[in-house]
Amino acid sequence: MLSRIVITGVGLASPNGNNLAEFRANLLAGVAGIERVDMRYMGPVLAGMCHYDPLRYQKKKELRVGTRAGSISIYCAREALADSGVNFEAMPKDRVGIYIGSTEHGTVETENEIFAISKFNYDVKFWSHYHNPRTVANNPAGEASLHLGSTGPAYCIGAACAAGNMGLIHAAQMLRLGEVDFAIGGGVSESTQSFGIFAGFKSQGALATHDDPKKASRPFDRSRNGIVVSEGGCLYTLERLDDALARGAKIYAEIAGYCVNSDATDYVLPNPVRQAECVRRAVAHAGLAPRDMHIVNTHATATPLGDIQECEALRAVFGEGCPDTHINNTKSYIGHAMGAAGALELAGNLPSFTDLVVHPTINVDDLDPACALPGLVLNQPKKVARVDAILNNSFGMLGINSALIVKRFVP
Amino acid sequence: MTKDECKKVVLDIIADIAPDEDISNVKPDVRLRDQLQLDSMDFLDIVMELRKRYSIEVPEADYQQLASLDSCAEYLTPKFNALAGKS
What we know:
The complex is a heterodimer of chains A (411) and B (87). Chain A has helices at 20-29, 60-65, 68-84, 107-118, 131-135, 139-148, 163-177, 195-203, 241-246, 272-285, 304-318, 331-334, 341-349, 352-355, and strands at 5-13, 34-39, 43-48, 96-102, 154-158, 182-189, 229-230, 232-240, 253-262, 295-298, 326-329, 357-358, 382-383, 389-396, 400-407. Chain A is of the alpha/beta class and 411 residues long. Chain A folds into two domains: 5-246, Thiolase/Chalcone synthase (Peroxisomal Thiolase, Chain A, domain 1, 3-Layer(aba) Sandwich); 256-407, Peroxisomal Thiolase, Chain A, domain 1 (3-Layer(aba) Sandwich). In chain A, the strands form three sheets. Chain A has a ten-stranded mixed sheet, sandwiched between helices. A three-stranded mixed sheet of chain A has the order 2-3-7, with helices on one face. In chain A, strands 12-13 form a two-stranded antiparallel ribbon. Chain B has a single domain (3-81), classed as Non-ribosomal Peptide Synthetase Peptidyl Carrier Protein, Chain A, CATH 1.10.1200.10. At the A-B interface, α2 of A face α3 of B.
């Protein structure tokens, strides 16, 4: 019998909130967090920037030496630990695991170094000795481990934009295996610091533009024209149910089921058949049926084709016989937080277990008929009779799909 | 450049690379590592900043010369003055 795994704490940095209460309030009030920023070599671009106070937990030197992703990880981890109420200082630190999903890491730091040596005629003797510790793939989790003095496993899971879910899934797996007794899992993104990510999406014809930044991220709308790149993070504390109950922890939700699969079809283009397969398997893994999913948080990033393909996948699973399934999208507020997306978007929906409100997809002025799924919640929050299970979709390049289901905790 | 001016240059660099430290009472004759939270990467930062800001090179064999403010001034002042003489 596998251990039951529960979520006991949430720490987040989002473009529209620095904790779950702020984030949720803005989701229900329709407040987006997108702004125009100046991007190296490119000029103004639209981005979701976080405005948490990094000095709340870090020293100035940590910020100077470390990375933005490391800083976001530390902020989110400390916030999650505080929210969990756990006595972290008294905990055996070698039994704590830190599992952080990331879309990419090192891009930002490499671009910065190349820019820096460009001022010295590209003489590499001016290349920073911090480049390698800043760019190793485990940097965000490693910085959190250093900061917390946590000596158990701490590493990142690279899974493109499916990574946020993966951090949670991996944490649950490691708790079940008994590898750790307490886990910090989720995802982070520092992607707004990299011109290359913006330029790459622009070259791909997939970078959003709009006169009003707050209307730029518009999944399912007929006039959507691409992705708004965002930074952010969301880390959870996860525990085996027995441990959580023993310390009288507040329980947000229980991990019910999940699936990770691969399209094996294209570098960039999604495959709705495999996406539907991923969702179905996650639902089956949870021992539930599609009609039991009361909220489906879509991955949709507001690319013209990608949204339609996810809708095709969801129509195949939820198109019939699911009258209580409500479908929303969180990127319409915060843009695409890349490696943090899955973790942040799940957090936005978690309060629905208690307030029974589904936050809507905003910025849908003219619903694309190809995205007109039954159960879509558009522009206004919807009060619903019950929320017992939430399905969280996160898909990424190279065809990686992740679907995570959390359910209302019932002892 | 005087030795005191050289110490000021080094202290300005330390202020940037160790921004949490109080550098108002650094004793010139005591090892920097014994009075400030500085690790080996920080000393590499001092070397890098000397290179970037002043085109001063400190070969690895001479890193020990940066141990204290006094030793820094002793070692670096002639280098600064040699550079000034060239320009």
